[in-house]
Every structure is written in C-alpha cells, then in structure tokens.
Design brief:
This protein is of the alpha/beta class. It is built from 25 helices and 20 strands.
Length: about 675
Amino acid sequence: MKQLEITINNETGLHARPAKTLVNLVKQFKSNITIWHGEKKANAKSLISVLTLGASKGSQLKIEVNGEDEDIALAEIESAILSGLGEGEPVSEPAAKPASPPAPQEEVPPVEESKPVKANVLKGVGAAPGIAIGPVYQFQHQEIPINEISDGLILGWESLQDALARAREQLSKLNHQMVEKGLKAEAAIFDAHLGLLDDPELTEAVHDRIQKGQDALKAWKETIEDSAVVVAALNDPILSARADDLRDVGRRVLRIMVGAEDKADSLPDKPVVVVARELSPSDTISFNKDFVLGFCIVNGGPTSHTAILARALGLPAVVSVDESVLKLENDSYIIVNGINGSVMFNPSPEELQAAEQERNAWLEKRRLALEQANVPAITADGHEVEVVGNAGSLADAEKALKMGAAGIGLLRTEFLFLERTTAPSEAEQFDVYRPIAETMGKLPVIIRTLDVGGDKPLPYIEMQHEENPFLGERGIRLCLNRPELFRQQLRAILRAGQYGNLQVMFPMVGDIEEYRRARLMLDELEIELKVPRIVAGIMIEVPSAALMADVLAKEVDFFSIGTNDLTQYTLAMDRGNPLLSAKQDGLHPAVLRLIAKTIEGAHKHGKWAGICGELGSDPYAVPILIGLGIDELSVTIPSVPLVKAQVRDLKFSDLQPLAQQALECATAREVRELVKKQLNM
C-alpha cells in the first residue's frame, strides 16, 4: 500500500467540479483508493463519498492506494491535485484602471417594461405558446408509504438488486428516447441517474444496513436521504442539483420495489394546470397527458427541460414565475398565457371570459395555421423565409411533410451511434438515410454528422477523460480525430444522397481548418464513389465561428445557427444548471449581435444562413430573426405551421428597424418587451 499526504489548494476546495474530476481519474485505476480528511474517510471512486468529505482550501488529505497499479495511480492523483483538478491556481485580479470618459454616442431610449396592472397577475417568461385555463394542481412528490409496507413484508438485498436492474432498464430506455427526439439535455440527466445507481458508496451503504437487519426498502430510502441531505448541505448550487437527482433516483427504485410505478405522482382525473417549483423530465413524462392543460413553473427558463418538452407536446407554459404561485389553492382557477408570459390567478368572471376569448382566438389561429400548412412562408410585403423541421427519424420526416415543412433543416444522427457496444456499419446508416431522402424527394434534408463527445461518450471508442467535456473533444473535433468512423458515416450519406436531396452539416466547427479537413474527406469520398459534389455547411455554435463568419463563408456552403449552444457559450452559462436556466435566453442582445454578424458574413459571399435552435420557434424571436435577414428557420415539427403563419402576418419592412433596435437593447427582457410593444403581441 502506498500513501500520500497533500494539501488542497483550490480556492473552493473539493466542490462539485474538482471532486468529479478526481473521481473520474481514480476510476481508471484498478487499485482500491481511499481519501482521509481528518476522521472522515471516503471511497475515492464515489462522487457522493468524496463530496461529503467537505474538504476546503488548505485541507490536509491523506490518500491511500492499494493494488497492482498503485504507483502510477498515486503519481497521477498527486499531479492532478497539484495542478488544481482542472481549476488551476487562483489568480489575483489586477488593480482596476481609472475609467476613461465614455465617447459620446446617440442615446438609445430605454425600453419600458410592461407592468402588471392588476394585483392578481404575475409576470414570468413565456416558454411554450398557447393559453391554458383551468384548476390549479400543485405538483409535489408524494411520500411512498414504506413503513406500512415494510411492517408486513421484509425485502432483502436480492429484491433491491432486481429493482436496481429494472431502474437501469427504465433510465436507459428514457435516455434513448430523449436522444432520438434530439433532447440531449434530458438524455444527459437520465445518464447521470444511471451513474448514481452504480455509485459504489451508495450501494455499499445500503448493503451494510441490510446486513444489520434493516429491510431493503428502509435501507435504500434512508441511505438516499442521508446522502442527499449531506450533499445539499454543502451549499453549492451544482451539488444541490445532485441532491435532487439522488432523490429522483431514490423514488424511482422505491416505486419499483413497492409496485407503485404507475401510481406515484399521478394527476387528478380531470384537466388541470400543473403548478410546481420545478419539474424534471421524469416528472413530466410520468403525467397522463390527457389531463395536462399547461404548466406554470417557478424555476427554469425558455430553454429549460420543461419548456422544451412543453413545446414538443404543444402545451402552454410559463416559467420563472414568482414563487407566490406555489401558495395557490388546488382547484382555484388560473390562466397561464405562454404567449406573453403572464399568469393570472383567481380571475373574475369577466377576466375568465376575456381569457377564453383570447384562447379561442389562439386555437383558431392554430387551426388556420394547420389548414394552411402548405402555404409558403412569405411576409405580407413579399419576403420569403424557408421554414423547415428538425427531425431524428423517418417518422419525423413523414410528419414534417404533413406539417408543411419545406425540408429538414436538421437531421440528427447520434441516435444511431448511442446505446450500443459497436459503431453502426455503413450499411446500417445507409438503410436509415435512404428512406428519409426518398420520403422528402427534392426537398433538402440537412444531415448533421455525428455530434457526440466528452459529455456523451461512445463505449466503443477510446476517449481521454475531460475536465470540461462541453469544451472538449465533441462534434467535428471528435470526428476528425476518428477518421474511419467519420468516413464511414460520410460514405453512407453520399450513397443515400443519390435517392434525394441530402446535404451535410458539420457541428461545433470553430475555425476554417476544421471545415477544410472535413470538406477534403468529402471530396475524396465523392471521387471514390463517383458521385456529384454534395452541399456542405456548418453549425454556428461557438462565438469564434460567428465572429469569423465572413471568412468561413468564402468556403462554406451555408450556416445553420445552433442557438442553444451559442447562447450557452456566449453567456458562459451551463444550460443544464437550474439556477441559471431563467437567464438562458437567446434573445440576449449579445447573442443577437453574433447572429447578426453570422448572417452578414453569409450574405457578403452569397451564402444563406438559418437557425436550427429553440429560438427559431419562439414567437418573440421570429420577427427579430427575420429582421436581421435570416433565410431559414428550422423548428420543432409541431411548430412549423405556426411559424409559417406568423411569418405571413409580418412585414419585412417593419422588422428591419425593429431588429436594429433590438441590437441596442441591454437585456433579453428588454428585447421581448420591445417586440411586444412594437407588434402588439
């Protein structure tokens, strides 16, 4: 056995990120590794265990390593801790320089935010369009009555193992379903839940309780709660989310063990508006959708999990609502307006009547949009915008045609590569791409090449551990480093392209060299297969690509702006962090300026630019994007008719000055208020 005593010098100690970095490193070694902090001991391969050490800056740790690779393990652990576990050494900030007087510039009048004129109106952020009117249902997780069950039934370790196996199956299935639908953020949550189920510290603690005579139900519940309390008490917002994940995983296993999987957290047997502090994807998909009128959520923003799912389900939703909404009585009436982001509680008969009229007008508008789904998206003064769909399967392509989509602006392919132990063959991929190409005929189908990476590793390729996977080897970077995997996909696309109008789009391109290398592979394969040159564009997801758009456009065939990631990288906010999701708004002027620069760079060289992120179906964003000159909007398939109808109601001549005003706003909320005021939304 080898030992090491070392001091933690990270400014915030072993909080979430450095602890995760350490655990991921340790898991690579076969040796048993233990960390001591005073009298506290942790299994170094368990994130939960390491977090509960509570090690802060200056803490002395003793690390014990025992096993066949103990020498190299100890050396790498020491090196990682000394280098800051991904955080580096703290750097003191330089003294601030005296501010220079600002240069005179034309004053931009501030946008006045609309204020509720009634005491029974709360302001939130519209996350999914539509108007929901109905009784309140305050969603809370119900306690599973394990005491009553445990008194008459003793469940042992084997029963727990069976429940854990079923929970893994459920989570793997949910993960796969979300990936297929393109909801990678939700898929990542279920993947994290799988990781918690396999945490050795968690399962060992439960096993110890059972061996001491406690039944498995109580042992599991109490271990989960004890761990969650300890993690949440560490006062770190990221760790608080891990505590919530623990409880969510715990409830899933308990339901399986007591046979209450389909009964827990169910809705009343009547239509209701779900009010909650927050909802996880697990919560949302457990509801009977026939009884959900809409959502009113305290936490989260327009790109949160609830918002994305609500739009996919076609249900109105308002997020970032004041928490006073949680005090509303069940069955009291509420009006949730996902169009303007307002929530009215305890409405008068007159207010109810007005809301019903507005809802009916909205429903009629949606009906007309569906009826006119195949009418082109041309503004009232003759400016055409292509409205296409985001898809992930042949079924999606067929639905997109019915909804009037002018093509597929984003065909996701990662679902072919995930949840398997070997890479899909060229033949497998060809068999997926060809029928989609044939279904769409002459309409364009833009296939995004494999977009996975450190945040979603593939088990059949060797990948290095990454401290920050969202800034690591993902998208085009991974493909270029795995040329055989990449060529196999490109060959399948080129062959299937002979049966339709397939085009290629490379994700996460940061500079021209990445595009050139990918394009060269395409050119070589076109010669080899003796097929015509295929159109190839890139996703604009990182600020460097947006800022260099005029250079990229000299060689790239088109741009498609992925606003979800572009917003995340521009604002330096993890869109998976629930405490930041309310600020994750693609209408932030900083993001809009990058979009404007991208469009300008494309048009300078006669290329087109589109949007394929969530912003494309945001009714407040559509006028701004068109005013900036966007050529294409690729949106969720249910949104296609509504976006097309909105385009037809607008005038391009009105939108150009509106977009320029939006670029001068200071916040995303100001942009939304500007659109609302100018267009009477």
